[in-house]
DNA sequence: TCGACACGACCGACCAGTCAGTCGAGTGAG
DNA sequence: CTCACTCGACTGACTGGTCGGTCGTGTCGA
């Protein structure tokens, strides 16, 4: 294939980083390819050597971001720790990630909305969400305690609720004028949800 | 001001309706003003008589949609029914609204994302969210039962969680490839949340 | 007759994408 | 060793289509 594939990978990464920053600052539609070019320290032609179009750049960026997140999730899932602790780690990972670069959340929101126009982005988010719920369901089933949701459909329903809770709280945090402590609020809410989930008898 | 203010209001409403449909179908950025013009049965000049720019049209649309929703919320709040029933009504209103026109949710998501570029939209959503949480807090405090969250900060925190739950579930529903029954899932999740909220002793 | 309202052809800024060309690292025949 | 040639990577000035917005011109009710 390429003589030096590593170079290509590095170049792509460099462009992704620049694109993320530019898209985060200006928003996808207002960002000019020339802006990305400038930020990445590449030429216009160089950019188009690696990406066929602006949409492909955005799609690639989504892939990269979600892959990164999936990687983190997989790491948590395979960590040798009690399920309760691993759940806590998931929440903390979200909060830390967003606290460190607050631009990420609005960027993700915009890319998500972009899914309406670019089907592949939608598909990508879709698959990612599906897998996230799947992971959560496993985690919840492993929680232990006699009344933790049983594996199977019940755990999946519970996982959907937890996932929605996380999404919603992150969304609120993203949009809030006076940002609250995301980790605290998120963890508290998830705990409340779990408490409600226990004690759930038939139906 | 206008000789016939009613006519102007009607015209605006007609344009809003068309704009909502076009934006929902094509997405804000892909939608051409000419598309809106065609859909609304107005001329370009007519459209620009009422809206100074595309952004102002979008902003107006956001105002109108949120005002409509706020209206519905106020109606629920002042309804003469037990708090539990009113909460149920809120959930049902969401589910029905979205079931009736499934295009609304993605449209709202896109407009929300547009808030990154158009500050007034962001402000508008912000105020709306704030008020929504406020209403929910009142509702939760009125829920009755000895352990319903007390009015004040505690109710507000609880309300934030409930609001996030609703947002998140709607988001999941919006993006899900195989849409589930939103009303069921939402109500179940809210109930779980409330159950967890009860029994919450000090801290 | 007047002015609010409506019309739609037209303008021109803007920007994604192109393309003709440069550069430097291989390759291999003589 | 070297010269002629290939090829992948990269450059940046340029273009052509696309729309948001304008403007000169009606129309019609009061």
UniProtKB/TrEMBL annotation, chains A, B:
<dbReference type="GO" id="GO:0045892">
    <property type="term" value="P:negative regulation of DNA-templated transcription"/>
</dbReference>
<dbReference type="GO" id="GO:0000976">
    <property type="term" value="F:transcription cis-regulatory region binding"/>
</dbReference>
<feature type="DNA-binding region" description="H-T-H motif">
    <location>
        <begin position="32"/>
        <end position="51"/>
    </location>
</feature>
<dbReference type="InterPro" id="IPR009057">
    <property type="entry name" value="Homeodomain-like_sf"/>
</dbReference>
<dbReference type="InterPro" id="IPR050109">
    <property type="entry name" value="HTH-type_TetR-like_transc_reg"/>
</dbReference>
<protein>
    <submittedName>
        <fullName>Transcriptional regulator</fullName>
    </submittedName>
</protein>
<dbReference type="GO" id="GO:0003700">
    <property type="term" value="F:DNA-binding transcription factor activity"/>
</dbReference>
<feature type="domain" description="HTH tetR-type">
    <location>
        <begin position="9"/>
        <end position="69"/>
    </location>
</feature>
<dbReference type="InterPro" id="IPR036271">
    <property type="entry name" value="Tet_transcr_reg_TetR-rel_C_sf"/>
</dbReference>
<keyword id="KW-0805">Transcription regulation</keyword>
<keyword id="KW-0678">Repressor</keyword>
<dbReference type="Pfam" id="PF00440">
    <property type="entry name" value="TetR_N"/>
</dbReference>
<dbReference type="InterPro" id="IPR001647">
    <property type="entry name" value="HTH_TetR"/>
</dbReference>
<keyword id="KW-0238">DNA-binding</keyword>
<keyword id="KW-0804">Transcription</keyword>
<dbReference type="Pfam" id="PF13977">
    <property type="entry name" value="TetR_C_6"/>
</dbReference>
<dbReference type="InterPro" id="IPR039538">
    <property type="entry name" value="BetI_C"/>
</dbReference>
